[in-house]
Amino acid sequence: MASLISIGVTGLTANQLALGTTGNNITNASVAGYSRQRVNLVTGPEQSSGVGFIGSGVQVDSVRRIVEQFVIKQLQQNTAAFHDVDAQSTQAGLIDSLLADQNTGVSPSLQTLFADLQQATQDPTSIPERQVVLNDASSLAQRFDALYSQLQDQSSNINQQLDSLTAQVSSMAQAIATLNRDISDATGSNVGAEPNALLDKRDELIRQVSELIGVSAVPQSNGMISLFVGNGQPLVVGTQANTLSTANSLNDPTRREVVFSAGGGSQPITQFVTGGTIGGLLKFRQNTLDTTLNTLGQIALNVADAMNQQQRMGLDLNGNFGGNLFTDINTASSMQTRALATNTNTGSAQLQVFIDNASALTTGDYRLNFTSATAYQLVNANGSALTPPVTGAIGALPATIATADGFQIRVPTGSTFAAGDSFIIQPTRQGASALNVALQKPEELAFAQPIRTSANLSNRGGGGISAGSMIAAYQANGTTREPTFATNGALTPPILIRFTSATTFDILDNTNPAAPVAITTGVAFTPGQNNTVTINDTVTGDPVYKFDVYGNPATGDQFNVNYNTNGSSDNRNALALTALQQTKTIGNASFDDAYGQLVATVGSNAAQLKINSDAADSVLTQTQASRDAVSGVNLDEEAANLIKYQQAYNASAQIITVARSLFDTLLAAFR
After folding, report:
1. What is the pTM of this model?
2. Are 236 and 110 in the same domain?
3. Of the candidates 113, 115, 109, 122, which has an alpha carbon nearest to the alpha carbon of residue 447?
4. 432 Cβ neighbours under 8 A, 6+ residues apart
5. What CA dihedral angle connects 225, 231, 235 and 237, to 10 degrees?
6. pLDDT at residue 11, rounded to an integer
7. Which of 154, 245, 246, 346 is buried most, with the most CB atoms less than 10 Å from its CB?
8. How many domains does the chain have?
């Protein structure tokens, strides 16, 4: 039969342990990831006596942490979700500020250039005003390049973050694997008792991993936890930890991708990674940064191409055809950088991407895949087919293949391909960095047009002819002049319009005014309204310029179209350059509209991500509160427990005191 002293001793021991556990809770109240612990007390085994069963005191069954596994798992998931969208929101906010700022955005420079162009049309011979236009063009090019550089810096920063964050994940994974071993060993050596501190530390480490990357934590029957990332890649299995790292992308050597390594092998898992800061950075890079770079490049290429084409259709102050205002969008180096060979290619080809219609460019990337040494297929970057599909086979080299969306892919002589070779095609990615001013002198700005119209002084009717406007001075290849303008200073041929009646006229080659040669006869004319006449090149048949004949000409009236000799005061091409500001050259948008749409899209995306981030933060806060309600230390509750266990301890001590007093009384009775 248990003695009163032994019963008191069990009370002392149990309540002393309860006091220690309570004190441990209080001192760890501010430790991240700590779960409050509770001493589970059970009644000691009863002993039989002649009158019934007599208790033997109290026993400590276990010291367990108070946790709810569902809440812990939810906390890990919500942590990954918040840090994913928060990383996207932070990065998108940087781009939004960059594009919309008056000091860094493109829109102010665009507006200044066209405003000063408009001012220059008032006095097209003014060198100072021409110089201002050149300076504005240079500022615009610098603004595009600065934006591109800053976006590239952001891309480089993401690379550095991925390097650092994957290293942290690997280090934490190793620590979790070590904890798995320690927990298993401690549990085995203590006959199933749980090592609470180690369990808390492991849960907190998994939560910290969730801040960096989305993981799936799967408990094992032996008390260990396995972690999986990406598409089910095992980051931690029992006491074995695998690693995450980064490597240059197979498709784009300027980009780092996430690589999973295990058992001596490795595989890129970038496309499968979600959650955490790493997932957010990858998602931002793909959905926002790349699109912004492509759109900015698309705008820059359209600005350069449209202004170059119009500039080359005019005459400068020296009477020569204008050269490119900006550098050619199809330089050898720029064409090569638009096609990136993947690292796994075994062929020797280095492709070129030639932009033949900038206004038809999209903001997408493409992939050129080879199914054999000659057969290819051009698809979207995500692998989906173009509409209509673009496929073919390569024959004799050099060759132009796979024309689509405003560009064509050129294969130089000596190129070889193998089945499985692949190329990433990025027509607009670096467009903003390639914009530079080509003209050096203000006199080279081509403000005049190369044609001049006039009416014969002897005309008797009330007809007239417009000043005319250019359609094209160069052939489709962009380098060869139309024969009409092949001779500098001359129109080949000069044109004579001769009315054969009030409603018909002939178009004549007026090279020899004494004997004009018919080009087209009997052209119908409607008196009293504008009748547009388009002149085609007599050799290529391409339309090169046009003008209107109007009013009520009389039979025999004549109108002349000649080269605009000494036309330095002509501002028609300057007006045409100015009109490009409102021309819908990028789909259904002008330069300003396209840039405004980019700013609006990025701004809307940044705002939505901020809303999503705030919402995810709220959910995470609630989940953390739920976890704290279950597992967190309530100091008021612990203070009450401290008093309760202290009183119980004192009472147990009093039991021993009473037992000793009774024993002393019993001894005294036998003296």
Report:
1. 0.89
2. yes
3. 122
4. 144, 145, 147, 148, 293, 296, 297, 299, 300
5. 40
6. 84
7. 246
8. 4
Closest Cα to residue 535, out of 469, 490, 487, 459? 469
Residue listed under structure tokens 């021409």: 130
Residues 145 and 151: their CA atoms lie apart, in Å, by 10
Question: Helices 572-579 and 107-120 meet at what angle, rounded to 10?
Answer: 160
State whether 275 and 140 are in the same domain. yes
- Residue 481 in tokens: 């002049």
Q: Does residue 163 sit in the same domain as residue 250?
A: yes
Cα 408 to the center of its chain, rounded Å: 25
Q: Does some domain include residue 18?
A: yes
| Tens of pLDDT, residues 358-381 | 999 999 999 999 999 999 999 999
Residue 202 shares a structural domain with residue 348: no
Contacts of 428 (CB under 8 A, 6+ apart): 294, 295, 297, 298, 301, 361, 362, 363
Q: 419 and 346 in contact (C-beta within 8 Å)? A: no
Query: Same domain for 143 and 243?
Result: yes
As a whole number of angstroms, the distance between CA 506 and CA 500 comes to 7
Number of other CB atoms surrounding residue 228 within 10 Å: 16
Of 43-52, 329-338, 406-415, minimum mean pLDDT range: 43-52
Q: Please, what's the b/e burial string for 623-644 (b: 16 or more CB within 10 A of its CB; e: otherwise)?
A: bbebbeeebbbeeeebeebbee
* Residue pLDDT, tens place only, 266-290: 999 999 999 999 999 999 999 999 9
Q: Which structure tokens are listed for 622? A: 């609630």
Q: How far is CA 379 from CA 33, 249, 370, 457, 627, in A?
A: 49, 19, 11, 62, 49
Q: How confident is the model at residue 1 (pLDDT cuts 50, 70, 90)?
A: very low
- Judged by DSSP in three states, 495 sits in strand
Count Cα atoms within 13 angstroms, Cβ side, for 377: 14
Cα–Cα distance between 547 and 465 in angstroms, integer?
7
* Domain contains 304: no
**Which tokens in the block code for residue 325?**
């205002």
Q: Residue 47's domain spans which residues?
A: 4-66+632-669
